[in-house]
Amino acid sequence: MLPHLICCVLTLGLAWSGEVTPPPPPASLGTTTDRPIRFVNNHVITQGDVQRQNAIRMGVFRKTGRVLPETDGELLRFCNDSLEDLTDETLLIQKAEELKVSINRDRLASEVVAEARSSGYLLRDMAIFRTLRERKLKMDAVLEWYERRAALVSPSEIEAYYNEHRAEFTRPSRAKALMYALHPTAPDERQALVTYFARLMRVAQSSTNDAVKLPATSRLEAYLAADLPGQEQILIAIASDLAALAANPDLNQTDREIVGEAAPLLKRWQGVRTRAQCEVETTAFRTEIAALPMAQRQVRFRERTKAESQGPHAVDGGDLGWVETKTYGQDIEDQILALPAGEVSAPFWTGGSVAVVLVLEREEGRTQEFAEVSSLLQHGLQMERQDLVRRRVVAVLRAQSSIKDLVALKDILR
């Protein structure tokens, strides 16, 4: 991830443009080769340091799906948070030096080389990664030094938390299901396709080859006399006859192009459906699946879904995975969660499509027992305690330190 982080550094320029640009490769973190922003005791935090911290935090934001800063105000807050993070880290590094924390440099070098090989880092990337890794190890060592003086989370605390938050460990009912869906063709899409068929009829009439011309000219009178649905059927018949000529060796280049247009149009037309046609087809599909023994339903459902469905995950046979409340919308969830395993639903409308679902297996809702979640709770509570220790340690270090701003970030962003 490091190369991505390095290349997405926010520029603290005259104005926020929403762009991210790579920084120059400084010799180390926290030097005076760029604009100083803050003194923390005898250490200076520079504009380049804040840029790098912004890049790292943006990488985390993207990975966790959080919203990135967009406005000037949001950018200023983001940069201020980065500056404060750097201040906390600097204080912890200084404490590590005071405590004479020792890092196993051979092990550090091995970790950096292994990471570089697996991620394809450049030499500059490796140097920055090594610096960041060394800083983290030193900070972790300082915090561990303080954590050893704080009480560990006890089994009674874990159980008390579970009893107090028992309702949060209730798992809702869920079911694995497949879905087959068809949706009506939009009127403008249907009309556009009919226009292509009408054009094909016109160009076929102009052919000098009787075999190509006949499917169109022989139906012209009927076409002119028919209503719109009737005209559609005649156009489809013309295209079908033309597609059947694809293997005719007597066609010239122009006629082969005319005939070659027919098959793709017919394939597209197979997906054209009215609302009523969708209901008829899904009802027939449901009837076919329900008539099969339960052991055969899943295989046939997947086969036809891959071939015909216009719904989600059609290429995977309509596999929705585990479905519970607030995963796919109430229309779908109500159908799936109401059916026993092996049963197929009646056709129902959802999001402009008519669908049928087959439930593969289901689990009823239940409350997870303490033994199932105790290790997870222990880890979570210990992480909370570690965060509390960090905040308290940093607060004490800040109170004991000299922190002086040389320039306000808002002036740099102005």
Written description of the protein model:
This protein has 414 residues and is α+β, with helices and mostly antiparallel strands. Helices cover 59% and strands 11% of the residues. The protein has 16 helices and nine strands. The chain has helices at residues 2-7, 47-64, 72-98, 105-119, 123-147, 155-164, 187-205, 210-217, 220-225, 228-243, 253-270, 275-291, 294-308, 330-338, 370-399, 409-413; strands at residues 36-40, 43-46, 170-171, 174-182, 319-323, 348-350, 353-363, 366-367, 403-405. The strands form three sheets. Strands 5-4-7-6 form a four-stranded antiparallel β-sheet. A hairpin with a 2-residue loop joins strand 1 and strand 2 (43-46). Helix 7 (187-205) packs across helix 8 (210-217) and helix 7 runs antiparallel to helix 11. The two termini are 31 Å apart. The relative contact order is 0.13. Mean pLDDT is 86; it is low at 1-32.
At a glance:
This protein is of the alpha+beta class. It is built from 16 helices and nine strands.
Strand content: 5-15%
Rg, Å, rounded: 34 Å
Mean residue pLDDT: 86
The succession of helices and strands, N to C, reads HEEHHHHHEEHHHHHHHEHEEEHEH
Shape designation? elongated
Major beta sheet, specifics?
A: 4 strands, antiparallel
Distance between the termini: 31 Å
Main attributes?
three-stranded antiparallel beta sheet; 414 residues; four-stranded antiparallel beta sheet; alpha+beta; elongated
What secondary-structure arrangement, pairings included, does this model have?
Elements: H1 2-7, E1 36-40, E2 43-46, H2 47-64, H3 72-98, H4 105-119, H5 123-147, H6 155-164, E3 170-171, E4 174-182, H7 187-205, H8 210-217, H9 220-225, H10 228-243, H11 253-270, H12 275-291, H13 294-308, E5 319-323, H14 330-338, E6 348-350, E7 353-363, E8 366-367, H15 370-399, E9 403-405, H16 409-413
Antiparallel strand pairs: 1-2, 1-9, 3-8, 4-5, 4-7, 6-7
Helix pairs in contact: 2-3, 3-5, 4-5, 6-15, 7-8, 7-10, 7-11, 10-11
